[in-house]
Amino acid sequence: MSLKDLPPDAQPREKLLARGPAALSDVELLAILLRTGIKGKGVLQMADELLRLKPAQPTVAPNAVSDITAAAPVVSGFDGLAGLLDASADDLNRIKGLGPAKRSEIVAVLELARRAMAQRLQERAVFETPDAVKNYLQLQLASRKHEVFAILFLDVQNRMLALEEMFQGTLTQTSVYPREVVQRALHLQASSVVLSHNHPSGSVQPSRADEMLTQTLKSALALIDVRVLDHVIVAPGEALSMAERGLL
Question: Do the bridges between strand 227-235 and strand 238-241 make them parallel or antiparallel, or are there none, so unpaired?
Answer without folding.
Answer: antiparallel
